[in-house]
Amino acid sequence: MPALRGPSDYSREPARHPCLRINSKDPFNAEPPRSMLHTTYVTPVDLFYKRNHGPIPIVDDIERYCFSFRGLIENPKTLFMKDIRWIFQNIMSLPLYNVQCAGNRRTAMSEVRTVKGVGWDVAAIGNAVWGGAKLADVLELIGIPKCTRTTQSGGRHVEFVSVDMCKEEKGGPYKASIPLSQASNPEADVLLAYEMNYEPLNRDHGYPLRVIVPGVIGARSVKWLDSINIIAEPCQGFFMQKDYKMFPPSVNWDNIDWSTRRPLMDFPIQCAICSLEDINVIKHGKITVSGYAAAGGGRGVERVDISVDGGKTWIEASRFQKPGVPYVADDLNNDKWAWVLFQAEVDVPHSTEIVAKAVDTAANVQPENVEEIWNLRGVLNTSWHKVQVRLGHSAM
Predict the structure, then answer these.
(1) Can you name the residues that pair with 212 across neighbouring β-strands?
(2) What is the pLDDT of residues 127-143, one digit of tens each?
(3) Where are the alpha helices (DSSP H) in the chain?
């Protein structure tokens, strides 16, 4: 029996926090209430969104667990858990990264036209301290120098293969890839992680070992690692070639051609209001508008703007990562790959629409309307986040 295996049914699923909003039971996909998401900079493990494509893998013997480096490299290598512990204690890293599902905020996109996918609200995102080793350091240990674009054997991409068995892969494993130039670049901060918030990964989040690729869609941060393959072309798996691609609103299931689009990688600038629901009854006066903002590709969050009149006029929200310390984009002391929390005190004299939009350090800004970016898979809904408030005698 293998040390780590993907079961064929859902009879041995782990326990989950009762407050999670379940969007799909089998496989289990769930997110916390948005009101609980922005109250702490580091998301508790139990409240971190759960994204799965099949039954949760089971570890039968952690000491026998191993994963291999194979493919277009000079010296293929297999590492056991004892090797991993030895390597990681010498090159341990504890960065703060946010991970965001490409389908975050899909429900709002489905209100325009039907889309295919798990119905996420605004909480398919989380911010955690990940413990592990930079992939660039581990690749160097097996003979691939830092910042390598191509191996001597012609390898240009790094494929991560899970033991997670997916119906989309016809019972085969979940897999994805990133360019070797990114994987071997220490500045890209790709991580092989075995801890989350200073504890061993739990089963939902990839125990015993996963990859974290910061700044890109969560689908590339493969859990339950079985092997890492150095390959010549991008991974040909389902989730690279026939999913997680961005199409224009004119494309439907009758005329789609998956080969015309590249796999999604960097996440665009995103923000969402978490202190208010989609529809709210509030008292007349001042209220606090708060939430998160996240920029992909390692870019900073230059600004978060709040409007209390549906986007006619704007005020700038305060931004922070560490409580009491104002956030300044591109400050070297920032957590480069983590989200930024925002807050603004606003007067609400009458029923209205409150809007939030963010701008990153490359001057990318969230689009105003979801209709402009609608796509049949409902991915990358980064449109202005809008909530309705109505004056009444009770507050939410």
Answers:
(1) 191
(2) 999 999 999 999 999 99
(3) 34-37, 81-90, 106-110, 135-141, 180-183, 238-241
